[in-house]
Predict the 3D structure of the following.
Amino acid sequence: DTNSFAYLALGDSYTIGQSVDEKDRFPVQLLDRLFPNNLENKEVKIIARTGWRTDQLQTAIDADTELKSKYDLVSLLIGVNNQYQGGDIEIYKVEFRALLEKAISLAGNDKTKVFVVSIPDYAYTPFGNGNTAISQEIDAYNAINKEITESLNITYHDITPISREGLNDPTLVADDNLHPSGKQYTKWVEVIMD
């Protein structure tokens, strides 16, 4: 149906847009950019929660009885809580790959309809306070998710450099001093649109 478009966004606090208005969440902004002239039936379904690791996202996908068999677009952004909670990066590798394969199947096995977003670096927020150990770990997680994404021929969007402007430009950080602001999500969407 050319008048409808269904987008499934999978992730954690960065996908649900913790501490910003619903309209400022990156999946909502992206859909508005893709279809500025109100498409009749455009829907974004978000399966994401603040604090989720890869295994919790997988459980939620498996438990969702309302998932369509096929989406027009599927995005995946996950891993910050694996890092934050001191998880085993080898387990992340396995679980991230499984999630990406699931995302591909939810796009009707059309890899052109799937994309991955890198994990932002929360060291560059007042909460992270420039902690270089955080940045090194985020880099390690992103190296893994990028390698897996590219090995499966999926588009990868690296938004981490944008997040690293957060200490220089406080308007890029939400009022909670940890999560991206709507303005930062707008910058992500510009990268994704390119």
